[in-house]
Amino acid sequence: MVRQYYDRFWARLAQPGESETRRSQRVLGTTILLIASISTAVNALRYAAIGLGEVGQVYAVMAAGLAAALALGIAFPQRFETIAFVVILFSITCTVVAHNLIGGYASGLQIIQWTIINLVFAVLFTSRRYVLLTVAYFILLVAVSGLRQPQIESLAPGLSPGFVGNDATVNIVLMGLLITGSGLYLFNQIERYRRKADNLLLNILPGSIAERLKEDPSTIADGFKEVTVLFADIVDFTALSAEANAVDVVCKLNEIFSEFDLLAARHGLEKIKTIGDAYMVAGGLPQPRNDHCAAVAAFALDIVAEMDRHKAWDGRPLRIRVGINTGPVVAGVIGRQKFIYDLWGDAVNVASRMESNGLSNQIQVTQAVRDELAGRYEFEARGPIAVKGKGQMTTYLLLDKRAARSPAVASPGGA
Predict the structure, then answer these.
(1) Exposed, middle or buried, 104 (CB in 10 Å: 0-12/13-18/19+)?
(2) For the segment 371-412, what is each residue's pLDDT rounded down to a tens digit?
(3) Which of 194, 316, 388, 405 is catalytic?
(4) CATH-assigned architecture of domain 215-402
(5) Which tens digit of pLDDT belongs to each residue from 22-64?
(6) Hey, where are the domains in the chain?
(7) Catalytic residue among 252, 321, 353, 382
(8) Active site residue 353
């Protein structure tokens, strides 16, 4: 319940366009400020109670400054980094002053160690420039304090061994907890960004290829003896798009291809790419599988059926052409920036020709596909057609039903 209220409170303070990282920094930094202002006020009372009024006053000033910074951070979240930098310098100054008033290193309390955690906070909440300025200021104050130790020690108040021991113990424990917490926060941030980067890479490349690329960024190229390739293209979409709003065009393509992505994942296929209103998918890579042709055929039937649900922005039905071929291909990653996993080979070119020479809302396949699926699906012979670069080819239309006869009875020419 406390976590829910905490999240709601910070959600109301979120800034428009603010990144998740910056919001996380503000939440953590402001929470630390709240805790620090309370604990510093407690320290002011503790030191005042044992007769160290000057030290108590320093902590009181520090508590008031932290509370003011807390209010400013909430009121002006866009100035968070600058406020954090000023607060860190202010905290370092107050801590060094309190350290010297209590007798410096001779007191045994070593409260100057609290300046170290401010360096950690500078790394967490400010820019590199502010971190370097903080480090320089820290070194300067500590060096000056060290040079003045003989004078500081001569004015040290007498403290009971019990107080020194208890206070030192508390300081060490709290310091350890803060450093551990800061380290966990940094680790979680690094891990979160690593997962985001991995997920982004997996949206571009197959999982096994992404792992290989991370291990060795050299050229990745593999040959596959049997892969089934499918091309699909929305009929007349370019002409329809010329009459439509650009946002409508992109939204419609995204809607359709997102459904295709889900179907490809369901059938265990690898989406290769989209080119305008064309969609390319393959079965049998990067992990070979024996049923790649059947899986692609099932996917093809599903996407043709899926198109029945979609209409253009003007109400006209959308149709699709699909072409499939199977055969050997070469697959690999090309480019160093905006790289892509792509396929090459005659089987790919023929699959593309099957689509471009196909019929609306039909799935045109080659003889190789028909032979591979004989007995499992029915086909309608389309006859020889002229295919660019291949001459006359015998092609078939994949029908939306299972074969009703055994492979031995099925005729080689059609349904």
Answers:
(1) buried
(2) 999 888 888 988 788 888 788 888 999 987 654 443 333 333
(3) 388
(4) 2-Layer Sandwich (3.30)
(5) 777 787 888 888 888 998 898 899 888 888 888 899 999 999 9
(6) 2-202, 215-402
(7) 353
(8) yes
